[in-house]
Amino acid sequence: MSQPDLASLPPAAFTDLAALSARRSARWRPGLAKERGRTLHSEVFASSNEAAGVAAALALAFDDWRHVPADGAQDGRAVLWVQTKDAARLAGRPYRAGLPKDLQGRVVHVLADKAEDALFALEEGLQCRDLAFVIGEVAGNPRALDFTASRRLSLASEKCGVPLYLLRLDAARDLSSARMRWDVTSAPSPAPLRNAQAPGRPIWRAELFRARGHAPGEWLLHEDGGKLRAVRERTADNDAQATNWTVGLQRRRLSHRA
Amino acid sequence: MSGGEGAEGPARRILSLWLPALALDRWRLDAPEAGRGLDAGPLVLIADTAHGPRIEAVNGHAAREGVRAGMMLADARTLCPQLATAGFDPAGDGALLQALAIWAQRWGPWSAMDAPDGLLVDVTAVAHLFGGEEALLQDVHARFRARGLAIRSAIAPTAGAAWALAHYGPDRAIVERDIGRALSGLPVAALRLEPATLTVLRRLGLKRIGQVAEIGRDALQRRFRTRKSLAANPLIRLDQLLGHKPEPMLPVIARIAPLAQRRLMEPIRHRELLDQVVGDLAADMARLLESKGLGARRLELALWRVDAEVAVRHLEMAAPSRDPAHICRLFAARLDDVDAGFGIEMLRLRAVWTEPLALEQGDIEAGADRPGTSLATCIDRLSARLGARAISRPVPFASHIPERAQRWHPPLEPEPSSQGLLEFHARPLKMLDKPEHIAVLYATPDGYPQRFRWRGGVHEVVRVEGPERIAPEWWRERGSARLRDYYRIEDGEGRRYWIYRQGILGDGRGGAPDWFLQGLCA
Question: How many contacts (CB atoms, under 8 Å) link A and B?
Fold first, then answer.
């Protein structure tokens, strides 16, 4: 490939390109793990009255997992699923026959009495190299799960590279060091082809309200043929958020240079 | 009838030993004055039953007075008022028999217990080491006499034949081939049959093995076709005796649990010192296990205190391991509640359950490349703090009822085989522990709810699929159990649930059917 003559381009092209690439990179999208690496600590806020949070967390986990080139030996690794007793009572326990096919034989389930025990189990799980990822379910805002605890989880996750997806059921958005924080609810599903009366394939409305390295946004997530698809709901609010975020980024760059 | 497989190759040689007076011999070994004291007169060993003491074993003097094993002591006392008694200890006899089974491996590489009072030793191709089979039997008798145990013995190509000869044949019998003819004169009790079957045979006029063998297979098959148990079916027993049917037996294998022990000069009362000693023991144990190529699954740590109290802590691991650091870490959580009292003077670590664990070369690069613990280590640590029941794995179970179709097993256990699920059975992602009752506010004519209340919120059903009817398991549940009609629904906000109606109106098993919500769909 020949190098294009950069000098011949007008200077405005560079700024546009930079803005565009900044804007592109600012957006989260499925499969981003291939370029940027996995997000190791995510939190998903959801209601305990629906399974949308768990389903979306699993979908995100699988998306990251598929897009990170892993050696063959790692493929059969187990998945640790930690629940507090409260969370299991409110939102139920995983049901093997309803889990995604890839996951059915690999779940190791931990039922913890208290949030402290669940955090211990999560941290032990994050230090285990034989796990593909760890899912935690904690109900409400327990005192044990403060910023220090979430920072501990982030560090443990980064140390061994095991991603954590922590489900916060019926919780307020408290302080946390999670790299990505989602708020997930169910969305009306499209009608299936054969039986228009039946519920269609699952679809979730996911709001990324805080993330390191991404602009916040809102998507409709669904899985299609083993791949995660995200459709953006185009609203003026969404675009404005992204632009603002890029502006902030540029300002930061300027201040760096100065 | 031919003598079995002898024509085809070298037959097996099984040595059967019968200790006719095992209980009494053991009592005499324990009693200081053999042949004198109680044993000089009529003596019986008694066991307590619901109907009073029953005689289990009798000595020669008592037998001459007419006392027999199986009598009640009160009846025997009328025959022989001066009868002396001692306790009968079947567990002790079993332990002695087990020890003897291992000891008997001096005559052959493989031995099995033939409870309650016999042993079987495989002496195939080893008789020449003792100078022939007669010499081997002489050696056996001499050794047992030296231990003060009376025996009868026999060698035959099958375990059944050897047993029959030892119990009912001439002493020190050796049968080479043609078992059928050699044993035809023995009573039918030599077939190892239960009393009820012996009674049937006696009433049929069959007293000898030869008579049973002569009347033909078809007749025996027809008469005893409903008897499936070995001890009740003379045909199976006859086939085993003649070697036509294999007879599996459990060999006794001596196992020594690896053990590390520390006696301390000075009793320890502090936790730091205790951890130090436990660390030393774990290192000893690791060396011991490594030399045998084993890994521990269950460890038992016993702490002897100065005042003769013993504290015992158990540890079970998900996968065989001999890593001292791992063992120490797991024990650390268990030692918190140990009361040292005046101090601990001895510690003993025993690997009660071990599994083979090959030596492996530590790979420095791999360890640096992938930091972290292994799954087994992680599970051990979790179960040490949360309890073994807290960690489990869902496995399928053969049942139609959704909550029964999944069971929780310990992790790392092999998965039980199961039939695959049908693809069109959509199942929810999460299942509530207990189905929750929903109040139907408005039902459609089709039968499913249009609007219902669950957990204080009102849900409007927009989409529905069903019903999937799941009938109760009539072979297990009571007759009043009601069927379930499952529906997969989606409400106005897109929340997807799995609900069911218990029973149908007019099924005669209760009033108006109730609705329940059981699963949350993705």
Answer: 174
Q: Does B458 touch chain A (CB under 8 A)?
A: no
Indicate the CATH number for domain B5-18+93-242: 3.30.70
CB contact under 8 Å between B371 and A129, yes or no, is: yes
A202-216 confidence digits (pLDDT tens): 999 999 999 887 888
Q: Per the CB < 8 Å rule, is B522 touching A55? A: yes
Euclidean distance between CA atoms B141 and B109, whole angstroms: 18
Nearest-Cα distance to chain A for B487, in Å, is 10
What would the pLDDT profile of B148-180 be if each residue is shown by its tens digit? 899 999 999 999 999 999 999 898 889 988 888
CATH topology of domain B22-88: MutS, DNA mismatch repair protein, domain I (3.40.1170)
Are B69 and B55 in contact by the 8 Å Cβ rule? The answer is: yes
Residue B374: pLDDT band with limits 50, 70, 90 = confident
Q: Where in chain B are the domains?
A: 5-18+93-242, 22-88, 259-356, 430-520
Stretch 347-386 of chain B: residues touching chain A, C-beta under 8 Å: 370-375, 377-379, 381-382, 385-386
pLDDT tier at A191, thresholds 50, 70, 90: confident
A chain contacts of residue B458, beta-carbon cutoff 8 Å: none
Q: For residue B1, what pLDDT is reported? A: 38
| CATH number 3.40.50.720 given to B259-356 | no
**Cα–Cα distance for residue pair B299/A2, rounded to 1 Å:** 69
By C-alpha distance, which of B45, B47, B141, B27 is closest to B93?
B27
Strand pairing class (A131-139; A164-169): parallel
**Structural domain contains residue A71:** yes
Residue B306 burial (CB < 10 Å; 0-12/13-18/19+)?
A: middle
Question: Is residue A118 in a domain?
Answer: yes
Reported as type and span, the H/E element at residue A149 is helix A147-160
B446: which 2 tokens? Answer: 């089709």
Structure-block tokens of residue B429: 């992602």
* Domain contains A158: yes
Range of the domain at A62: 28-187
